[in-house]
Write a structure and sequence with these properties.
The chain is built from ten helices and 21 strands. It is an alpha+beta fold and 379 residues long. Strands 14-17-20-19 form a four-stranded antiparallel sheet, with no helix packed on it. A four-stranded antiparallel sheet has the order 15-16-21-18. A three-stranded antiparallel sheet has the order 1-2-3.
Length: 379
């Protein structure tokens, strides 16, 4: 797996855990992809994660100290059992997933079991679990824009996928869309069968460019970065979970986890606790309209945050009598917006911010929601 930053090998990680200083390779994303930029000496303090100083793997005879130097003894320790090669996915991962699922389903057989893969920088080759037909699987893989996340910079013309760089804003967006289609739609069917999929986590760092936005109050870069991530997910009609909301986030400590600062809310930006939007970051991209319920099959969904325009298309199912329901956030639209539909009647629940479209007779329907034209002219 590709790693940005200090990248110890498994053996080096064992040595570090046992309290030995080790010189490890350091990698950064360059014009030519992920490249080694040098090496770094780590753990000069000789801190060990083990109480007795000796690690588990040293006790198992995987490695030892000989003539004052660490020596790897069993190079194939994790590849063989009783001198026979093993398939990790089939022997360990799949049975473990099934036991885990059975434990969950013992409480409620109807519960779903979410399986997460990390799609950045490269996905892990997980086993096919659809053979366990009694389990309701969900593909809950996580995805992030690698360069934006790790470099904490938004470079719209540069993307990183499968160990290769992609150049050009349009090409990057298309590459991301095709990648998510492959991993979240095609591979869901391959690995889990007829199962739902949800992007279990995605987001962007808000402390980009050394925390410049905290000093200037200008979050335009974060808005663009988050907007692009949203659009590639929505264009695939995928469900998602935005990472994250941290109620005690501050500019100084971030999310207080792994040096991350991905929260769309921060106490440092909150000026009026009585205002639900106060403290929000990049809300122009984060607060979005969306189709909540569709009486048929959703065929396309596009939201342009710059113009606050949403386009929704769906094929009507004659068996469903309920209206289409779309969430229209007050933050972006207020109470004055325009709606264009194929044919039918409209009703707006202002309290719940739900627009209901009672379609009339057509098989295909289009819905367009925009800020009121007068508002657009006054921009």
């Amino acid at each position: 797996m590709d790693i940005v930053g200090d990248a110890p090998t498994p053996f080096q990680a064992m040595m570090l855990g046992a309290g030995l200083p080790v010189e490890v390779d350091h990698f950064e994303v360059s014009t030519f992809g992920l490249s080694k930029t040098g090496s770094v000496r780590v753990n000069d303090a000789r801190k060990s994660v083990w109480k007795d100083g000796k690690g588990l793997w040293q006790k198992q005879g995987v490695w030892t100290i000989k003539d004052g130097k660490p020596v790897l003894i069993k190079k194939d320790y994790f590849a063989k059992v009783n001198e026979k090669k093993v398939d990790f996915n089939e022997r360990y991962y799949a049975p473990f997933a099934k036991r885990y699922a059975d434990s969950v389903r013992s409480v409620n057989p109807g519960w779903f079991v979410c399986v997460d893969n990390i799609l950045f920088p490269n996905p892990i080759d997980l086993p096919e679990l659809k053979k366990y037909k009694d389990v309701h699987w969900v593909n809950g893989s996580h995805w992030y824009d690698d360069i934006t996340l790790f470099k904490k910079k938004y470079v719209p013309y540069l993307g990183y996928l499968d160990g290769k760089l992609v150049f050009g804003p349009g090409r990057v967006r298309i590459a991301f869309e095709e990648y998510l289609k492959e991993e979240m739609i095609i591979n869901t069917l391959k690995r889990y069968g007829d199962a739902p999929a949800i992007v279990g986590g995605f987001g962007i760092p808000f402390d980009m460019n050394g925390g410049e936005a905290y000093r200037t109050g200008d979050y335009s870069v974060q808005i663009k970065a988050l907007g692009r991530s949203f659009s590639v997910i929505e264009n695939n009609l995928l469900n998602y979970t935005l990472w994250n909301y941290t109620a005690d986030n501050t500019n100084a400590r971030g999310d207080n986890r792994n040096g991350e600062d991905l929260s769309i809310f921060s106490l440092s930006q909150q000026k009026d606790p009585s205002n639900i939007n106060s403290g929000g970051r990049a809300l122009e991209a984060a607060v979005r309209p969306y189709p909540k319920r569709i009486p048929g099959k959703l065929t396309s969904y596009l939201y342009k945050y710059k113009d606050a325009e949403m386009y929704v298309s769906f094929n009507f199912s004659g068996k469903i009598k309920a209206p289409a329901e779309l969430f229209v956030p007050e933050y972006m639209y207020g109470d004055d917006f325009d709606v264009y539909v194929t044919k039918g009647k409209l009703f707006f629940d202002n309290k719940e911010r739900i627009l209901m479209y009672y379609h009339a007779g057509e098989d295909k329907h289009d819905i367009v929601i925009r800020k009121h034209l007068l508002d657009n002219k006054n921009k």
